[in-house]
Input
Amino acid sequence: MKIGVVGTGYVGIVTGSCLADKGFDVLCFDVDEAKIAAYSKGKSVIYEPGLEDLIKRNLQEGRLNFTTDIRSFIEYAEVIFLCVGTPPLPDGSADLSQVETAVRNIAEYAPPNSYKIIVEKSTVPVGTHKRLQTITRLYNKSKTEFDFVVNSEFLREGSAIGDFLNPDRVVIGLETEKAKEIMLKIYSDFDTERVVVDPASAEIIKYASNSFLAMKISFINTVADLCEKTGADIGKVADGIGFDKRIGRAFLNAGIGYGGSCFPKDVKAFINVLDSQSVESSILKAVESFNRYRPNKIIKILEEELWILKDKDIAVWGLAFKPETDDIREAPSLNVVSSLIERGVNLKLYDPEAKNNFEKLFPESDKLKYATSPMEAIEDTEALIILTEWDEFKKVKPDDIFKAMKLPVVVDGRNVFAETDMIKKGFRYFPIGKGKVFDMMKKTV
Ligand code: NAD
Output
């Protein structure tokens, strides 16, 4: 079976390389020539653990290929996975223009008397599969037979390959037996639950899953704020809640809110879908607005501790929205760094992988520098803010941090360090949701 992948972003390149690794012949198409040139040479343009090796191996073994030529791509591919972006429009709804262009091109250039399956892997609002059908009918002049399948992707950046190859479930929304047989064949070698449903249900499953997880995060962050005010400990509370099998412990780590290329945009897009269908959406509006203002918490703690931030030297560890990725889309760091710049802070930023992406938005200046190590970032600073829980940070010894900083103020937005240790060493330490620590900090200032 010859597989085509349209769009070689995070999802497309992982989908293409993993399916090639499963033994399929895969051709990936993108309009971005630089990306295709890099991938054709086995060079990954994103940081994702294990990805470059996977690309190189499958290129060498001849199963994975790349092109910018739409005609030869469509001639070749029998099953076409759409992995283009669906970023948010200003009103929160999903911008489906990349999806529309991709499908229109497929329809226009599809060879006559052939059969193609178009698979929606991108995250799209319910009803998009119907739009794909009508636009394809409109632009296809060569009587190609098309089937449409919804097969949303659930991988997480940072563990994308493992997630793709060992998913909790594969959701497949379709309408014909022919498409069902082919899709089940593609996933026959995956040891997982196959959820075969109608296309509309499949489209809703993706948005509902991400919105539910985002809701869990905003919920536990609300409880964390209560813990800080009442002497309770969010770690213990989350364990106590999480042992309940109906709830589960995953996604109950308190912090400075969710970010990334999926949760913020998918929650907004799902609100938009609910509103457009006149379905009550206040539950998700609360999740979204709580999360939007969550990073302000860091600034509030700093201002309570250091009062005026202007001209203070402050280090930030972690710019990526989560560890093991270089993705900074909707990362809390964007909000925190902008607020610190507005306040005239002298910033030293460090992230093991996301520096290049961050630097495009926040170039170096007199008041903003990038460090090449966590220790270089904190040298002589008056506060350290931790925004991403990279393993590298957990390995730095608190004694070394204490010695390097001018003032030992640490605002730990990801609860990376053990609070008892930090307090014993004399830090002014502010983790999330640790009521006793906050009380102690208030009393000892
Ligand atoms: P991305 O922005 O990283 O990549 C999109 C790619 O599509 C780019 O390389 C772009 O050049 C290419 N493209 C745009 N228009 C094209 C066209 N007409 N023809 C060919 N290529 C085109 O996006 P992503 O993060 O990979 O996400 C893709 C989709 O998957 C989105 O809908 C997203 O919500 C969903 N998703 C993302 C993740 C994730 O963690 N990133 C996880 C699950 C689902």
